[in-house]
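Quick one: structure tokens for this chain, please?
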Amino acid sequence: MIAFVRGILHSLEEDNVVVDCGQIGYRVFVPTITITHQQGQEIFLHTYQHVKEDGITLYGFIEKKQLDVFKKCITVSGIGPKSGLGIINQLSITEILTGIQSEDYTIFTKVSGIGKKTAQRLVLELKDKFKEETLIQTTQKASSTGASNVVNQALEGLIGLGYKRNEVEQIVKNMANSGAADVSEIIKLVLKEKGLGGR
């Protein structure tokens, strides 16, 4: 199994590149819209090796995330590697995840070779596979943003009470990271820990 290809970009064609890896040139089918490299530059591709009776084909992606989505897409009946490549070539990862989670199959019918029934099947079969990943990304983003806002507001309040940022910043961050989400609660806890009252 060829997991990746690193070498010099020898040529770029309509749907594939040839990568010069010393004594061997690998033809790798890629979503060409994502390739910004120029001929002669080094290129690194995460690859999927597709084996059939009549030969072996390599599909390559600049980002590991693209490969992961591609591999999930081709598990759907009616979507082979070429259609999977078309999905990555015409839609961003965000569009793919959003389309699946919102059950908007029409976005996938824009891809050559994918009709209405296949698009509906893709959404149906992949919704659960992408659900956990999408929720984790959303939760992490929301959690990070929320914690950051709470920390900033609590720090502003404490500075207004006369404390210096370097005296209380780490305490506030620790409290926010341990689950305290209310600004006034954090301020009260800091005041208690520092001996009540401002300066």
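The two ends are 66 Å apart (CA to CA).
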